[in-house]
Amino acid sequence: MEITIGRTLLRLVEGDITQQETDAIVNAANSELAGGGGVDGAIHRAGGPAIHEECMRIRRERGRLPAGQAVITSGGRLKARYVIHTVGPIWRGGDHGEDETLASAYRSSLELAREHGLRTVAFPSISTGAYGFPVERAARVALGAVRDFLLRPEGQGLEEVRFVLFSGRDLEVYERALKDMS
Ligand code: ADP
Prior knowledge:
By secondary structure, the chain is an alpha/beta fold. The protein is built from five helices and seven strands, in the order βββααββαβαβα.
């Protein structure tokens, strides 16, 4: 499914984010930037050790990355030139600012992409795996945050924002949320 927002194509696909040929892929990292399970582990495995080394340098220079913020590294052996690492919120019942932190993770990632002049970015479903954020609510927040960014002047240079959902069920949830939004 795809729609146009401002001048940007917003696409929802089922697939593996490590295989995307966008300028950047986004990693659902943790605050330590240390790699881990889920999509984080898959990106580090596919991209090779250069990404981890850059993450460790960033970690030494600026300490832990708070939830809602993002940093950028090269893409190592990935097809994507860059990896944007962001940290989503851990779900704590829904009234601990989780929505705002999740929106901030998407927004910060898109801001970094624009600062680097990137035109195409692929996102996974941040926080809906190990971090336990319910996917229906996460889809609404994620798509709303991306739409709001694309309607701002900074969003105008992006050609495509792609959500790469790892299961058919997650794709359906995101498709429903996008229909409800448009
Ligand atoms: P978080 O800790 O932010 O919840 P996870 O990696 O546990 O991150 O899960 C986030 C989402 O990424 C989940 O929907 C999971 O199914 C999905 N995922 C895992 N591997 C991949 C992959 N290779 N490509 C795209 N999505 C993936």
